[in-house]
Amino acid sequence: MKLIDGKKISSDKRAEIKEKVAKIKQQTGKIPGLATILVGGDPASRVYIQSKIKACEHAGIKSFHHDLDENSSQEAIIALIKKLSENFEIDGILLQLPLPQNKDAQEYLNAISPLKDVDGLHPFNVGLLNLSKSWNEIIEKNILVSCTPLGIVHILRKSGITIEGKTAVVIGRSNLVGKPLSMLLLANNATVIMAHSRTNNLKEICKSADIVVTAVGKSRFVNKDFIKIGAAVIDVGINRTPEGLCGDVDFDAVKDMDIEITPVPGGVGPVTITMLLENTLKAFSNRRKIVV
Ligand SMILES: NC(=O)C1=CN([C@@H]2O[C@H](COP(=O)(O)OP(=O)(O)OC[C@H]3O[C@@H](n4cnc5c(N)ncnc54)[C@H](OP(=O)(O)O)[C@@H]3O)[C@@H](O)[C@H]2O)C=CC1
Ligand SMILES: Nc1nc(=O)c2c([nH]1)NC[C@@H]1CN(c3ccc(C(=O)N[C@@H](CCC(=O)O)C(=O)O)cc3)C=[N+]21
C-alpha cells in the first residue's frame, strides 16, 4: 500500500495560508478572525477545538473562543451566535458539533450569518453547493463548503489521483461529511454512489469503486473484501479503541494490498483543520470584498 501523507499535505497548505495572511495584514492592516463555540465540555470536542485555535494562531488568524455551559439555553446560544454574526472583526463562526443533550444542531447553524459560515452548514451555502455545476465554479465563487469534504478533494488532487470519470463510493450520508463530499466529487465529474446503513450489497458496491471514502465511525468496518486493487481509500473515521486511535479501515487487513490510503491519525484530520483556515480566508475575502 501507499500511504497518503495528510500531515505533509496539510503543512504545505498551512504555510501558503500563513503567507497570505501576512500579506493581507501588510497590505490592508486587517487580520482575519475566527470565532469558535464549544457547548459543554466533551473531552474529544475540546481537543479538536484546541487544535483549531492553535492552527489559527500559527497562521496569524485571530481566534475568539467561547465556552458555553452544557446547560445553556437555546436562547443564550443563539444570542451569542447572533452577536458574533454582527461583530465586524469576526470573519468565520464555527459551532463545534455534536451539541450536548441531543440538541438539534440545524436550528443553531441557521442563526450563523451565511457569510461567516466556515463549516458550510447553513442552508444558503448548502444550496449554493448543490446548485454549482463544476469544481471551478465552487472555487471561483468562493463558496463555503464543509471542511472535511474540501480536505478530501484537496488530498486527492495533491496526490495526483484523478477524480473525473472515476466511480466513487461514499459510505456515510451526514450533512457534515457524506452529503457535501458526494456533491464535491460530482462537481469533479466522478460517478458517485452514496452508501449508508440501509445499503444492500455494500461490499460488492465498494469493490467496484476506484475511490472509496468511509465516514462511518466504526473501527475495522472496511476490510479487504471492500477494496479493488489499485483503488484509493480515504478513511475519515475517528475511533477511539483500547488499542488507540484508528479509522474505519481494518488497516492490518489491507496493508499488503496495492492501494493508496489515508492513515488515521495523520490523514484527513489535519487537512480538515487546514480547510477551516482556508474557509476563514474565503469568508474574509467575500465579506470584506478584498481579493486574497
Ligand atoms: N477526520 C475528520 O476530519 C473528521 C472525522 N469525522 C469522523 O467520521 C465519522 C463519521 O462522521 P459523521 O459523518 O459526522 O457521522 P454520522 O454519525 O453523522 O454518520 C455516520 C454515517 O455512517 C452510516 N453508517 C452507520 N453504520 C453503517 C453501516 N453498517 N453501513 C453503512 N453505513 C453505515 C450512517 O448511515 P445512516 O445515515 O443510514 O444512519 C451515517 O450516514 C466519525 O467517526 C467522525 O468522528 C467526522 C468529521 C471530520
Ligand atoms: N462544526 C464542526 N466542524 C467540524 O469540522 C467537526 C465538528 N464540528 N465536530 C467533530 C468533527 C471531527 N473533526 C476532526 C477534526 C480534526 C481531526 C484531527 O486532527 N485528527 C487527528 C488526530 C487527533 C487526535 O489525536 O484525536 C488525525 O486524524 O491525525 C479529527 C476530527 C472535525 N469535526
From TrEMBL:
<dbReference type="GO" id="GO:0004488">
    <property type="term" value="F:methylenetetrahydrofolate dehydrogenase (NADP+) activity"/>
</dbReference>
<feature type="domain" description="Tetrahydrofolate dehydrogenase/cyclohydrolase NAD(P)-binding">
    <location>
        <begin position="146"/>
        <end position="286"/>
    </location>
</feature>
<keyword id="KW-0028">Amino-acid biosynthesis</keyword>
<dbReference type="GO" id="GO:0009086">
    <property type="term" value="P:methionine biosynthetic process"/>
</dbReference>
<comment type="subunit">
    <text>Homodimer.</text>
</comment>
<dbReference type="GO" id="GO:0006164">
    <property type="term" value="P:purine nucleotide biosynthetic process"/>
</dbReference>
<dbReference type="InterPro" id="IPR000672">
    <property type="entry name" value="THF_DH/CycHdrlase"/>
</dbReference>
<feature type="binding site">
    <location>
        <begin position="172"/>
        <end position="174"/>
    </location>
    <ligand>
        <name>NADP(+)</name>
    </ligand>
</feature>
<dbReference type="GO" id="GO:0004477">
    <property type="term" value="F:methenyltetrahydrofolate cyclohydrolase activity"/>
</dbReference>
<dbReference type="InterPro" id="IPR020630">
    <property type="entry name" value="THF_DH/CycHdrlase_cat_dom"/>
</dbReference>
<feature type="binding site">
    <location>
        <position position="238"/>
    </location>
    <ligand>
        <name>NADP(+)</name>
    </ligand>
</feature>
<keyword id="KW-0554">One-carbon metabolism</keyword>
<keyword id="KW-0486">Methionine biosynthesis</keyword>
<comment type="similarity">
    <text>Belongs to the tetrahydrofolate dehydrogenase/cyclohydrolase family.</text>
</comment>
<keyword id="KW-0378">Hydrolase</keyword>
<dbReference type="Pfam" id="PF02882">
    <property type="entry name" value="THF_DHG_CYH_C"/>
</dbReference>
<dbReference type="Pfam" id="PF00763">
    <property type="entry name" value="THF_DHG_CYH"/>
</dbReference>
<dbReference type="InterPro" id="IPR020631">
    <property type="entry name" value="THF_DH/CycHdrlase_NAD-bd_dom"/>
</dbReference>
<comment type="pathway">
    <text>One-carbon metabolism; tetrahydrofolate interconversion.</text>
</comment>
<feature type="domain" description="Tetrahydrofolate dehydrogenase/cyclohydrolase catalytic">
    <location>
        <begin position="4"/>
        <end position="119"/>
    </location>
</feature>
<keyword id="KW-0560">Oxidoreductase</keyword>
<keyword id="KW-0511">Multifunctional enzyme</keyword>
<dbReference type="InterPro" id="IPR046346">
    <property type="entry name" value="Aminoacid_DH-like_N_sf"/>
</dbReference>
<dbReference type="GO" id="GO:0000105">
    <property type="term" value="P:L-histidine biosynthetic process"/>
</dbReference>
<keyword id="KW-0368">Histidine biosynthesis</keyword>
<dbReference type="InterPro" id="IPR036291">
    <property type="entry name" value="NAD(P)-bd_dom_sf"/>
</dbReference>
<dbReference type="GO" id="GO:0035999">
    <property type="term" value="P:tetrahydrofolate interconversion"/>
</dbReference>
<protein>
    <recommendedName>
        <fullName>Bifunctional protein FolD</fullName>
        <ecNumber>1.5.1.5</ecNumber>
        <ecNumber>3.5.4.9</ecNumber>
    </recommendedName>
</protein>
<comment type="function">
    <text>Catalyzes the oxidation of 5,10-methylenetetrahydrofolate to 5,10-methenyltetrahydrofolate and then the hydrolysis of 5,10-methenyltetrahydrofolate to 10-formyltetrahydrofolate.</text>
</comment>
<keyword id="KW-0658">Purine biosynthesis</keyword>
<keyword id="KW-0521">NADP</keyword>
<dbReference type="GO" id="GO:0005829">
    <property type="term" value="C:cytosol"/>
</dbReference>
